[in-house]
From TrEMBL:
Domain of life, source organism: Bacteria
Biological function: One of the early assembly proteins it binds 23S rRNA. One of the proteins that surrounds the polypeptide exit tunnel on the outside of the ribosome. Forms the main docking site for trigger factor binding to the ribosome.
Protein name: Large ribosomal subunit protein uL23
Keyword terms: Ribonucleoprotein, Ribosomal protein, RNA-binding, rRNA-binding
Molecular function in Gene Ontology: rRNA binding; structural constituent of ribosome
Designated gene of the protein: rplW
Amino acid sequence: MRDYRDIIIRPIITERTMKIMADDNKYTFEVRKDTNKVEVAKAIESIFNVKVVKVNISNLKSVNIRRGRYMGKTKAVKKAIVKLAEGDSIALFGDEE
């Protein structure tokens, strides 16, 4: 069994994810590509001491991008949107408890 801290790579913080965090109590994380919903839920519950209600996972493909005359690709990531139980929260910026 892997360590739970190896499953969660980083939180994804954008305007859209901050809006769903405030409205629906959902948090978005980048996770390893070989994980499933059960492993993500157990990892979030053990790391942050919260109750996970639901996990949605989506695979984001790489996209061709252009910077001037140079072509490149973004990296492909696996994203997990985690819904927490009512009253639970995760302190992403250290201002919450």
